[in-house]
């Protein structure tokens, strides 16, 4: 299964920024764990990190043509990027939204996702392990179908 993992804004600062919320693991370490898991479980994984909303949209469009699923951590764009939500809705593959922290236990503005209504599902609050859970979800629902098995 070909999967694209997209890390959004500020995730390049993992391990340095708000360790009490996001933990002390760097993005490189987390990416290594994702790739190792993928290798053991038959995934071909491409990983990207960008602080640019437009680049996330371009990556989603590309994934819609080239992949069977997406793991997306949209970072702060979660709460207000209708453009990313539209891009998720526009592609015909499952997108699993991931958040390292539990967005529902944080500030009020973080408790709403404009991406979730178009995602196959959302995983929040399990730290970096959420990315592995998202890959498991994609494997379970059968990649390539927007919302999983019919």
TrEMBL record:
Which keywords accompany this UniProt record? Amino-acid biosynthesis, Aromatic amino acid biosynthesis, Lyase
List the SUPFAM superfamilies hit by this protein, alphabetically.
Answer: Type II 3-dehydroquinate dehydratase
Q: In this chain's numbering, which residues are marked as the site (Transition state stabilizer)? A: 17
Listed Pfam families: DHquinase_II
Q: Which pathway does this chain act in?
A: Metabolic intermediate biosynthesis; chorismate biosynthesis; chorismate from D-erythrose 4-phosphate and phosphoenolpyruvate: step 3/7
What InterPro entries does the entry give? Answer: DHquinase_II, DHquinase_II_sf
Q: Which domain of life is it from?
A: Bacteria
- Biological process per Gene Ontology, one example term: aromatic amino acid family biosynthetic process
* EC number(s) recorded for this UniProt protein: 4.2.1.10
The active site annotation covers 22 (proton acceptor), 99 (proton donor)
What is the role of this chain? Catalyzes a trans-dehydration via an enolate intermediate.
Member of which family? Belongs to the type-II 3-dehydroquinase family.
What quaternary arrangement does the UniProt entry report?
A: Homododecamer.
Protein name (database record): 3-dehydroquinate dehydratase
The species this protein belongs to is Anaerobranca californiensis DSM 14826
What lineage does UniProt assign to this protein's organism? Bacteria, Bacillati, Bacillota, Clostridia, Eubacteriales
């Amino acid at each position: 299964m070909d999967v694209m993992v997209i890390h959004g804004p500020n995730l390049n600062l993992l391990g340095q920024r708000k360790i009490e919320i996001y933990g002390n693991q760097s993005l490189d370490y987390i990416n290594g764990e994702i790739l190792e898991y993928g290798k053991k479980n038959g995934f071909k994984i491409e990983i990207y990190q960008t602080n640019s909303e437009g680049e996330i949209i371009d990556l989603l469009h590309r994934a819609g043509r080239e992949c069977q699923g997406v793991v997306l951590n949209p970072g702060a764009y979660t709460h207000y990027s209708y453009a990313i939500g539209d891009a998720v809705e526009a592609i015909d593959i499952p997108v699993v939204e991931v958040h390292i922290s539990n967005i529902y236990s944080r500030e009020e503005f973080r408790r709403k996702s404009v991406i979730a209504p178009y995602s196959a599902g959302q995983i929040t609050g399990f730290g970096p392990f959420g990315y592995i859970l998202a890959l498991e979800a994609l494997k379970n629902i059968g990649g390539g179908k927007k919302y999983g098995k019919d």
